[in-house]
């Protein structure tokens, strides 16, 4: 009795699968975080004991996973992306790393409010209020500069390579390339006080980037990368790709 050989997963397909899973992890962890942070962000009495602490701790844990997964997407994809452009590939890694750094800074600020709450016995209420508000303000700005703006930079770098290479259908990175300047403009509008970070206008401006990241993540899981000369070179561990840009 002969056995039919099992099809082996190629290195390129494995890369696409892992990157796609990490992209979906960023979605699964980012969406509930703001809801879990509602008490510490919006209740002035939180530092004095109002509301529960566990939601903040869970929100912090999810955002830590979010930051790690975000860096993971860039690290996993870098060997593929650099075949088309080392500059854009490095830009993608850098943008993801900066985004994670901002996320971690915001997490630290909110966990510091939690520490103030736990050690607030005998402290001056006005001082506690001022300190807590300052720490929440740090989180708000890191949220804008990290998850609020860095995905636009990532989309410009990663989306450009995906569009040029044809590794995924061009309509997918086109959504990201259109959404990136919209998100950047929205961030500037928030900086100058046109509208709040968490508002209908801000959410609408972020929608194209969300669609881009979700669609590219799902495509990489379900379909993987399309076969192109550059992709074949990566799969075959070729030392260089003719025509790659610096």
Q: Explain this structure to me?
A:
The chain is mostly helical. Helix content is 72%, strand content 0%. The protein has ten helices and no strands. The protein has helices at 11-30, 33-36, 38-42, 54-81, 86-118, 125-145, 150-165, 171-191, 200-222, 229-235. α5 runs antiparallel to α6 (125-145), α5 (86-118) packs antiparallel against α7 and α7 (150-165) runs antiparallel to α8. The longest helix has 33 residues, at 86-118. It is elongated. Residues 234-246 have low confidence and may be disordered.
Task: Describe the structure concisely.
The C terminus is likely disordered. The chain is mostly helical.
Keywords:
246 residues; mainly alpha; 72% helix; 0% strand; disordered C terminus
Class by SSE composition: mainly alpha
Q: What is the overall pLDDT average?
A: 87
N- and C-termini, Cα separation: 53 Å
- Percent of residues in helices comes to over 70%
What is the N-to-C succession of helices and strands?
Answer: HHHHHHHHHH
If helices are DSSP runs of H or I spanning 4 or more residues, what is the number of helices? 10
Q: State the shape.
A: elongated
Poorly predicted runs of 5 or more residues:
234-246
Counting DSSP E segments of at least 2 residues, the number of strands comes to 0
Strand count, sense and closure of the main sheet? none
Radius of gyration: 21 Å
Determine the strand fraction and express it as a percent band: under 5%
Write the layout of secondary structure elements.
Layout: H1 11-30, H2 33-36, H3 38-42, H4 54-81, H5 86-118, H6 125-145, H7 150-165, H8 171-191, H9 200-222, H10 229-235
Helix pairs in contact: 1-4, 1-9, 4-5, 5-6, 5-7, 7-8, 8-9
């Amino acid at each position: 009795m002969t056995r039919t050989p099992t099809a082996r997963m190629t290195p390129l397909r494995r890369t696409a699968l892992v990157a796609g899973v990490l992209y979906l992890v960023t979605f699964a962890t980012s969406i509930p975080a703001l809801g879990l942070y509602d008490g510490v962000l919006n209740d002035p009495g939180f530092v004095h004991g109002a509301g529960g602490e566990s939601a903040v701790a869970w929100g912090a844990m999810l955002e830590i996973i979010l930051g790690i997964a975000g860096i993971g997407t860039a690290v996993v994809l870098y060997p593929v992306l650099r075949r088309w452009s080392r500059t854009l590939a490095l830009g993608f890694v850098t943008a993801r790393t900066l985004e994670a750094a901002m996320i971690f800074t915001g997490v630290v600020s909110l966990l510091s409010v939690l520490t103030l709450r736990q050690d607030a016995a005998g402290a001056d209420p006005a001082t506690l209020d001022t300190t807590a508000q300052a720490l929440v303000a740090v989180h708000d700005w890191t949220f804008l500069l990290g998850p609020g703006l860095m995905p636009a930079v990532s989309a410009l770098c990663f989306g450009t390579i995906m569009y040029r290479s044809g590794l995924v259908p061009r309509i997918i990175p086109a959504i990201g390339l259109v959404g990136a300047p919209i998100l950047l403009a929205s961030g500037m509008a928030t900086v100058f006080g046109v509208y709040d970070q968490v508002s209908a206008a801000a959410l609408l401006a972020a929608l194209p980037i969300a669609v881009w990241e979700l669609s590219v993540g799902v495509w990489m899981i379900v379909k993987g990368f399309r076969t192109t000369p550059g992709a074949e070179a990566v799969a075959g561990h070729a030392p260089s790709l003719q025509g790659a840009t610096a």
